[in-house]
Every structure is written in structure tokens, then in C-alpha cells.
UniProtKB/TrEMBL annotation:
InterPro entries in the cross-refs: DHFR-like_dom_sf, RibDG_C, Riboflavin_Biosynth_HTPR
SUPFAM superfamilies to which the protein is assigned, alphabetical: Dihydrofolate reductase-like
Region described as Disordered: 19-41
UniProt GO BP: riboflavin biosynthetic process
Domain Bacterial bifunctional deaminase-reductase C-terminal per the UniProt entry, residue ranges: 7-193
Any GO MF annotation of the entry: 5-amino-6-(5-phosphoribosylamino)uracil reductase activity
The protein's name in its UniProt record: Riboflavin biosynthesis protein RibD
Cited Pfam families: RibD_C
Length: 206
């Protein structure tokens, strides 16, 4: 009997002009020139300044049984990969399940507090997805970003759903969602406006 597969969902916060980070990301400024101090304070204020208002969306994100992220989301500084660095999610990252990090830099799996283990995948997006699906069982896999990683999965036709958290300001430049992605047909599943963000979920039609 074949075990049913969960949904592959991309979940990302973007400015209203589609950017998830500015240029010049560093270890101290993970979101680069994002229109604030480079820490994503403006982009992700909806999570931290109004958590109760957006509790359902945060819980939905945390319900995944495995995650995939790009190297820049783990940590973009090239030198950081040459030393024992835990990424900028701290000693107890919020995932609490396996996280598969796309990278060209091979590393041993990195267990963290709270149940998160980072697995560093060097053989491409399909391998990362296969490993994440195996870890998730019949649970959902969330591709957490950044935009470059999500664009690769969208272009390859490997995404079932897209959850966007759209913040009402323009960034103007940086890493942009849908860059280089062929035309997509999407079905809007739901949307909800909050005080600092609009949440929209789309099904990717094939």
C-alpha cells in the first residue's frame, strides 16, 4: 500500500513589489538593504508586533513535518561555512523537525535543541525534496525560502501550494519572488487582511 504524500507548500513574506530580502546580506544583516536595519524588522513585524492577530498563519507554518531552505536562509556569509556556525536561527530554531539546507558546501548533519536537525544537501532541489518527503512521511513539506530557492521549485513544477504574506511597503531591489519562473496558473484558496500584512494562499494548478 502506498503511503499518501503530504502537500509541498512554499511559505514566504514579501514586500508588495515581491522582494523577500535586499542586496548585501551579511551575518549581521540577514535581510540586507531591506529598507530598515537589515534584520527584517520591517518585513516581519507582523510576526512579532502583532503575534495574536497572526497566530493561525504562524501555526500553519509550524505544522510542517519537514522544511527546505536555501543556503542564504541558513546563513549567507561564505566564511560562516568554514567554521562551526549554527546559522542565525539560534541554538533552538523554531522548526523542531528536520530541515534540509540546499548548499554547495558539504557538512555533517547538525542537531539542535528542540528537535531541529539541519541536513545539508549538495545534490540539488529534487534530492532535497525527496529527503524531506521521506522525513515528513504523510505530513507536509514547507519550502521556507528564500525567494531564490522557492523560484527554483516553482520553475521545476514541484510545488502544490503557495502561501504569501504581503507587507505594504516597496523594497525596490533585492531577491525577488517569481524571478525567472515561467507563467503559473494559480487558484486563490483564501486571503485575509491583518493590520500589518495580507495573507494569501494559492493552489498551483498543473
Amino acid at each position: 500500500m502506498t503511503t499518501p504524500l503530504g502537500t509541498v507548500t512554499c511559505d514566504i513574506t514579501i514586500s508588495i513589489d515581491g522582494y523577500s530580502a535586499g542586496h548585501d546580506q551579511t551575518e549581521e544583516r540577514p535581510f540586507g538593504d531591506d529598507g530598515s536595519d537589515g534584520t527584517g524588522e520591517k518585513l516581519h513585524a507582523w510576526m512579532f508586533e502583532t503575534p495574536e492577530e497572526n497566530k493561525a498563519e504562524v501555526e500553519e507554518f509550524r505544522a510542517a513535518k519537514a522544511y527546505i531552505m536555501g543556503r542564504n536562509m541558513f546563513g549567507p556569509v561564505r566564511g560562516a561555512w568554514d567554521r562551526p556556525w549554527n546559522g542565525w536561527w539560534g541554538d533552538n530554531p523554531p522548526f523542531h523537525v528536520p530541515v534540509f539546507v540546499l548548499t554547495h558546501h558539504a557538512r555533517e548533519p547538525q542537531p539542535m535543541e528542540g528537535g531541529t536537525t539541519y541536513h545539508f544537501v549538495t545534490d540539488g532541489i529534487e534530492s532535497a525534496l525527496a529527503q524531506a518527503r521521506a522525513a515528513a512521511g504523510d505530513g507536509d513539506v514547507t519550502i521556507a525560502g528564500g525567494a531564490t530557492t522557492i523560484n527554483q521549485y516553482l520553475a521545476a513544477g514541484l510545488v502544490d501550494a503557495l502561501r504569501l504574506h504581503i507587507v505594504p511597503f516597496t523594497m525596490g531591489a533585492g531577491t525577488r519572488l517569481f524571478e525567472g519562473v515561467p507563467r503559473l496558473d494559480l487558484e486563490q484558496v483564501r486571503s485575509r487582511a491583518a493590520s500589518l500584512v495580507t495573507h494569501v494562499t494559492y493552489r498551483v494548478l498543473r
